[in-house]
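Email to the structure team, subject: NAD-dependent epimerase model.

Hi all, the expression group asked for a predicted structure before they design truncation constructs. Nothing fancy, just the tokens so they can compare against earlier work. One-line instruction: predict NAD-dependent epimerase, return tokens.
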Amino acid sequence: METRTYAVVGSTGNCGTALIENLWKRDNSIIHAYCRNRAKLLQKLPFTQGSKRVAIFEGGIDDVPLMVQCVTGCRAIFLVVSTNDNIPGCSLGQDTAKSLITALCDIKDEITTNPNQNGSTGTLLPKIVLLSSSTLDDHLSRHLPPTLRRLLVRAASHVYNDLAETEKLLRAEKDWLTSLYAMPGALSVDIQRDHAISLTDHDGPLSYLDLAAAMIEAVDDEAGQAVTMAQTSTREIQAATLQRFIEGWASWTPEGFLDSWSDNCTQQNLPFCQNSPVKTRETVVLFFPILMSILTNFKLKVHNIVHESETGKAAIYAQTTADSPWGPYQNEYALFLWFDKTGEKVQNIEELFDTIVMDTFLPKIQACTNEIMAKKKRAAASGTNPAVATETAVVNSTVGELPPT
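Reply from the structure team: attached below.
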């Protein structure tokens, strides 16, 4: 695996430490941490002390020679210096960017003079990723109430002005320097959950660890653009799982049908007064291929979906049609799903179907299933194959309690 070196300028801040933590998890990453206080960095991230994968560069933001040492040979530079002090004339970002641009100019000149001694890792110069804010962008802030946006800008006007001017400095060098602009919304000191990268939107508060992961993902992409970082919301994760469930159902294949099911997913037919047994995933794995061979040319039409992310539930009202050995098959029912804690899998399914239709088809499906299993037993090498016998018993005990059809 190719070793990649990344520089973090502003490594003792919340974003800087989150970047180092994320990069540390990747065995092929070398980290150059630029900071003004080495002791502070070691206190925050003790694992960096003595590490062969972390080089610490302690110095001021105007120390161009030290910055040259720090960023030479790097794949990317994360420019994440920040301050919470809204001081008039604040220029921390601008001053750091000016030193960094000067350092990169020196490296560029060295590359031009000695093209085989640049120590780069695939590109002549590293990309810069600037930590900015979606508050500065009219489009990214379009869903933010105007009054709230004005209050935010006013409360940190000098910090935002420094950010805006820093962006201008980097954009002015776009002919030779690739820069990306990470523009998250609200940030929080929280555990790492998940993230999404978008050119047009952001969604809700984002942890620094998720922001850092998104910045690393963005810089490893060959396309350099301004991006907004957003935490993938629970609703989005569940919605993607719900879509996967429907697509798998419509595919009418064992792999597609079970793709969104958790390992311990259960299924039960309604109403409860019928006392239908709860079926496990293992049961459905055995029965579904047989059902597929009976009901062919399967079609699914979804009429309505209700998704309640707060409780982790969804409901689907749908119709299915298929060809069967006994003529056209059609069913109509409601399906209720529960998602697991991650939202990435379905852990429980309850189905209420048209009992009149099923009263007609279930006995026929039962008989057909028995015939298929009998053929399997007759095809066994000698006597009754124990595996086939077990499969037959499971299917016979559950047929009539169909999975979604």
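The first strand starts at residue 4 and ends at 9. The domain at 236-398 is CATH 3.10.450.50 (Nuclear Transport Factor 2; Chain: A,). Ping us if the truncation boundaries need rechecking.
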